[in-house]
């Protein structure tokens, strides 16, 4: 049953996932070309010193990309379910709600993690070709917050999409916006080192919130 | 699980409220604070407070005497020497010492310690400039060094490879001076936009202080003896035009010290202890005295210090003005959650009571 549910999710999201993967690869390539262009024009020493003394991370344009991917994936998964109440079919399957909805959420997390890990690996490879490991770690640790924000955004969007009433949905959007704002309070590199675990825990806690929306849906809230 | 979901949602919403409401209240009630510019005048023997919020600005001393702009310039001739020079009013002798604009320019300095900068995370790679360059101007090097458990490693930035020969040369020199790897502090000003270069000050694993620089491509390492009771906390390489001081540092107790360039002598500045990691400090110095400003949580302290023996000449405390809106805010919103701090660049949840601020 889990396999079938995963397959259903795959059918809904495969094109989007391919598009997201393409965007991540293209943006990585663009950032790499940008850095190589500066190295060619001004020399590697210049870009190293900019990284060391000016705290530049060179991949700033990717800041909101994981967040947008997280939101889009949740929309692609849950808006069709809520449209014309198709989720009723999923809830009528001979498995518990926790298992059916949980597997949909698990699918989202797995897909996002695959995309994000691929992006981090790709970034790590091209950064290592130019920079010392200290600078690479500095940049990767800075970008980790953006990926955690993507997971959080996915989870909060799922919660909002599954909510059956607009009144509660509006209230959920306010809470989600405030929580996501927490991930983008400052542009300083490595500013979130001490907060990453807290944000990840928050994203994990948020996995339980869609079940409140499902419960309300089952109670017939319109 | 549903119960956990509801409780966690309610908890998160409560935390968001104690984060957002005080922030919104502060945003709505914030007002510009007019704090005077304070400087010690050796001529008047008193602090001068200049209120720049009124035009023309008004300067008063602690006795209540009022001075206009011209009088203020004359009372602080070292600080306003360019103004006095332009008006041909610069004296040729101050306190029995002949002075020239060049001498005043060389001995004047402004130094700031920002806790946010001190507490920030930096890349642990350090460019070591040539301190005796062939040309007049300093130039940034082609390599940077890191300090590992085994020694110093120079990495060529063009090839991203370790320069074994240079690394060995510097590591050997440090080992000969009994440096215990790795370093716990590496302090320098890695920029070519300065008059001269003093390299880096290093604190080794054993807590000993070392001076490292590169002269004519060769390592210069000097171990600096500190009094036994002094354990360095925060350190800053000065590189002022006067060449008199090498560094300022605070120890674990919060005492503030000057490390003089000549003979590496350490002197304690006779001011009360303070925490460099949470209180911003500014020093406006000249050849006769320094005005030290320390911003504390609820007040600003000023100290006039003798530039020769670092004794405290005079001190002044100005309590921060608490606006009625701030006072009311503390009662209305006693619990606050902050994610940002003016002294720590790291984002982190800081839950506290407004009354303690």
Give a quick summary of the entry.
The complex is a heterodimer of chains A (222) and B (357). Chain A is mainly α and 222 residues long.
Please explain how this structure is put together.
- The complex is a heterodimer of chains A (222) and B (357).
- In chain A, 79% of the residues lie in helices and 0% in strands.
- Chain A has nine helices and no strands.
- In chain A, helix 1 (2-42) runs parallel beside helix 5, helix 3 packs parallel to helix 6 (133-162) and helix 6 (133-162) runs parallel beside helix 9.
- The radius of gyration of chain A is 20 Å and the shape is elongated.
- The two termini of chain A are 29 Å apart.
- The relative contact order of chain A is 0.13.
- Chain B has four domains: 2-26 and 323-356, no CATH class; 37-110, no CATH class; 111-118 and 225-320; 120-221, no CATH class.
- Chain B has seven helices and 25 strands.
- The model of chain B has no long low-confidence stretch (mean pLDDT 93).
- Chains A and B meet through helix 2, helix 5, helix 6, helix 7 and helix 8 of A and helix 1 and strand 8 of B.
Mean pLDDT of chain A: 92
Terminal CA distance of chain A reads 29 Å
Mean pLDDT of chain B: 93
Low-confidence stretches of chain B: none
Number of strands of chain B: 25
Seen as an oligomer or otherwise, the chain set is heterodimer
- Structurally, the number of domains of chain A stands at 1
**Major β-sheet profile of chain B:** 5 strands, antiparallel
| Helical run tally of chain B | 7
Distance between the termini of chain B: 39 Å
Which structural class best describes the helix and strand composition of chain A?
A: mainly alpha
Percent of residues in helices of chain A comes to over 70%
Question: What is the N-to-C succession of helices and strands of chain A?
Answer: HHHHHHHHH
User: What helical percentage do the residues of chain B reach?
Assistant: 10-25%
How many DSSP helices of chain A?
9
Major β-sheet profile of chain A: none
Which parts of chain A are unreliable, with pLDDT below 50 for 5 consecutive residues or more? none
